[in-house]
Amino acid sequence: MISIIACAEKKKELPKKINTILKDSTKIKPDIKKAEKSWDSLHSNNVEAFFTEYEKTNKETKVMITTEYGKIKLRLYNDTPIHRANFIFLTKIKYFDTTVFYRVAKNFVIQGGNSDDEYTMKQRNKYGNYLIKPEFLAHRKHKYGALAAARHWENNPDKLSSPFEFYMVHSKNGAHHLNNQHTVFGEVISGFSTLDKIAEVEVGPDEWPIVDVKMKVEIIE
Q1: Fewer beta carbons under 10 A from the terminal one: N or C of the chain?
Q2: Least confident residue range of 26-35, 82-91, 177-186
Q3: Residue 182 sits in which domain range?
Q4: Long-range CB contacts for residues 19-24, cutoff 8 Å, separation at least 24
Q5: Percentage of the chain with pLDDT > 90?
Q6: Would you say residue 15 lies in a domain?
Q7: What is the pLDDT averaged over residues 116-128?
Q8: What is the domain-level CATH number for residue 79?
């Protein structure tokens, strides 16, 4: 199993799971401020409404992760619309560009989307460290190259996804014990050799690379 950590602090051991108004008024005054639409500003209480609206005008499904070890091309699934829209949103605001692959478990998963960078923490806090409801689908499994959302395992009975942290399955046999535990919302379509190179980096006892593996994520289609 895999887990995420709420704050990515280096050298702390990671568990083996994937861890991550209308005002009531009877009188209408000329200067009354109109209520914002429920999806206008992303926060922890309007996640589904925000991304349901966002995905209507942000249809991209392919992104490129660039690292010093090469590139990884991802295809995001349209049938997991909230997770897809969330990943596109974070890519467009360049959230991922200050994050790293903070867990490298060779022949299992390569996990990223967090860092100890101050900007990373500010971005997470800006949107209230929101969570996403799972989008489990029978045909979206943890095959080799699957892209999935990390999540906390403790105190998370609804299996809510971290919006910020993701992993790619590096095992050629897949990681099928994680099916219906984590939402699979995309897959690697090229760059498997890059995954292999990242998998070879030296890591500490917490599986965090000794030298940070930084990333840049861009929309390509």
Answers
A1: C
A2: 26-35
A3: 47-219
A4: 19/150, 19/151, 19/152, 19/153, 20/114, 20/149, 20/150, 20/151, 20/152, 20/161, 20/162, 20/164, 20/165
A5: 80
A6: no
A7: 91
A8: 2.40.100.10
